UniProtKB/TrEMBL annotation:
<dbReference type="GO" id="GO:0045444">
    <property type="term" value="P:fat cell differentiation"/>
</dbReference>
<dbReference type="GO" id="GO:0005225">
    <property type="term" value="F:volume-sensitive anion channel activity"/>
</dbReference>
<keyword id="KW-0406">Ion transport</keyword>
<dbReference type="GO" id="GO:0034214">
    <property type="term" value="P:protein hexamerization"/>
</dbReference>
<keyword id="KW-0433">Leucine-rich repeat</keyword>
<feature type="domain" description="LRRC8 pannexin-like TM region">
    <location>
        <begin position="1"/>
        <end position="338"/>
    </location>
</feature>
<keyword id="KW-0597">Phosphoprotein</keyword>
<dbReference type="InterPro" id="IPR003591">
    <property type="entry name" value="Leu-rich_rpt_typical-subtyp"/>
</dbReference>
<dbReference type="Pfam" id="PF12534">
    <property type="entry name" value="Pannexin_like"/>
</dbReference>
<comment type="similarity">
    <text>Belongs to the LRRC8 family.</text>
</comment>
<dbReference type="InterPro" id="IPR001611">
    <property type="entry name" value="Leu-rich_rpt"/>
</dbReference>
<dbReference type="InterPro" id="IPR032675">
    <property type="entry name" value="LRR_dom_sf"/>
</dbReference>
<keyword id="KW-1015">Disulfide bond</keyword>
<keyword id="KW-1133">Transmembrane helix</keyword>
<keyword id="KW-1003">Cell membrane</keyword>
<keyword id="KW-0472">Membrane</keyword>
<feature type="transmembrane region" description="Helical">
    <location>
        <begin position="257"/>
        <end position="279"/>
    </location>
</feature>
Amino acid sequence: MIPVTEFRQFSEQQPAFRVLKPWWDVFTDYLSVAMLMIGVFGCTLQVMQDKIICLPKRVQPAQNHSSVSNVSQALASTTPLPPPKPSPTNPATVEMKGLKTDLDLQQYSFINQMCYERALHWYAKYFPYLVLIHTLVFMLCSNFWFKFPGSSSKIEHFISILGKCFDSPWTTRALSEVSGEDSEEKDNRKNNMNRSNTTQSGPEGSLVNSQSLKSIPEKFVVDKSTAGALDKKEGEQAKALFEKVKKFRLHVEEGDILYAMYVRQTVLKVIKFLIIIAYNSALVSKVQFTVDCNVDIQDMTGYKNFSCNHTMAHLFSKLSFCYLCFVSIYGLTCLYTLYWLFYRSLREYSFEYVRQETGIDDIPDVKNDFAFMLHMIDQYDPLYSKRFAVFLSEVSENKLKQLNLNNEWTPDKLRQKLQTNAHNRLELPLIMLSGLPDTVFEITELQSLKLEIIKNVMIPATVAQLDNLQELSLHQCSVKIHSAALSFLKENLKVLSVKFDDMRELPPWMYGLRNLEELYLVGSLSHDISKNVTLESLRDLKSLKILSIKSNVSKIPQAVVDVASHLQKMCIHNDGTKLVMINNLKKMTNLTELELVHCDLERIPHAVFSLLSLQELDLKENNLKSIEEIVSFQHLRKLTVLKLWHNSITYIPEHIKKLTSLERLSFSHNKIEVLPSHLFLCNKIRYLDLSYNDIRFIPPEVGVLQSLQYFSIMCNKVESLPDELYFCKKLKTLKIGKNSLSVLSPKIGNLLFLSYLDVKGNHFEILPPELGDCRALKRAGLVVEDTLFETLPSDVREQMKAE
């Protein structure tokens, strides 16, 4: 007998695929097994038993005289012999005999075969084979979508991810956190759900449910002791699952091959069911026990008419009726499947019930094949969809990232990164993290927090624990803030620095920081920035004193003018964009420091001369060639710092002498060839930088600068230094490197406070031993060739090397 297990390959699929088999597929699988057993049993009988048994029929005498002799012979041959008479040795034995046919075994076999092929109806002959073939087709149709390459790969991937999501400790933790909600919140959610369902009731009171999950079990409750913190490995596995789910969703939602494949195989099964019912119902009566056989084989057997017995007719008849019953049930189940497929929108899946049940409100609805597989999963167990939905939630993913961050960045590890910044504050820099660790807010001594390239930063209410926090730097970060945290920052934050690539990265809450004193903005803004709504809100920053904008503005924003009354320092770094309309500077009457860097200015703006409170002016990296307007600076009585470096200035006008209040003056990186003696009439100058020019001569009037502490003429063409330079007794830094000097005067020993001397790159052959009188000058502060340093006396060298 043929074992049924031989046909397993036609319906075998991975055990994990059972979660995608609804009850009707399981039921039809069992029906297929029953029908398969009928076919196998019938085929086995066909092979092992005689199919048909035939006997010749008696022929009546014919009236034709020409055939009398033949008939007589036939009758004689078929006339039974008289029974033997009792013998003396066996008086009671009588041998019983039937009709004589004079046919041997081979002839009977031939007759049986001929009548089986010619007389027996094809349905009676091939019934078990038809059952077997039809059943195998049913089994193939039921499992074809599990085997087809275009669909099986998606199914395998989905089942793999689904199992990992179901068993993930993070799923248990996320749902257990929801299970710990207050009962009042649960009741409110249930009431809202009931009201929502009531509004969806049909006209006859029947509930019209548009949700995908009809019967999810009660909320998954886990003992808090089992939902402890994830270890690092579990956290990384959950993080990888989130990424897999995202990529799988993008891939599967693009098409509906799974849905189309399942619909087609179901339609094919229904069509086949109708065909089977139609022809089987018509032909089942053809299975008869007695069959008349008329075959022209008289010349071979002597007979033409036979009466045959189909030995399995009775059994086949019963099996056919049983098979029809199974097929009918199978077909009705397939019809119900079609009804389920077309009555509901299976290419859309809503997690509305899960959102209400779990409280995770950002679980997105899905479509196409992703939705169809989730519908199929619901028929197996809705709990799978509920636990899988956790990995579709962005909120859940952010919580996991936060948990992993907290495990990785412990308070002790964060304290190791603390450093002092330029504002002399204790700063914690965090770069390229997936979020902001909650452990940051346990470092109560923190004064400055610097975040760089961190997406989706959420500043929680626990920031209020940082009592000393005064400075916040956000570089290419998208930041959200808790309302309680915003209240804290409004009162405590003094300095905010924002570096952005997109205007949307500018935090809208920064305009409400009423106690903010310093604001630094770095990023690309619109050229027509005055019409930008976001910056107009700067007028609410009533305590703002310092504003720095490094961007590409074409004019000073109106928002800046709105805070002009209390603004003390403004910096505009324009990255080469020409700043044209700057008359608004006149309104900044309290401005003490102004930087207009890389603004493509060709002249000193006249509006600057109206800033009577101005103390420092920096016009670095512009296109200044002539500075005749410098005479107007004489009205700025408080101006002490003037930086005109990195321009194209060719000469210094004599009017410079009128700027008697100057203390710091920088003309470095220009094209100046001649120094006017009037420059040194600004006798309050303490810092003078003339480096990187084409100067050949230093006027002896330099000795007038008795307050001079810093003097640099590096990278010029100076051939000699006037002795009057060494009258500047307060000089601490002297940079004369990369010139054409050949002799260094021994009078340099008069500079008792000299601590830094750069003479490298000249033509000196020897250094004066009087350098030893400069007690503050050490080897680290002397920039000179090693060979030239060796020309100093040994005691001077030892003195400089000594700490």
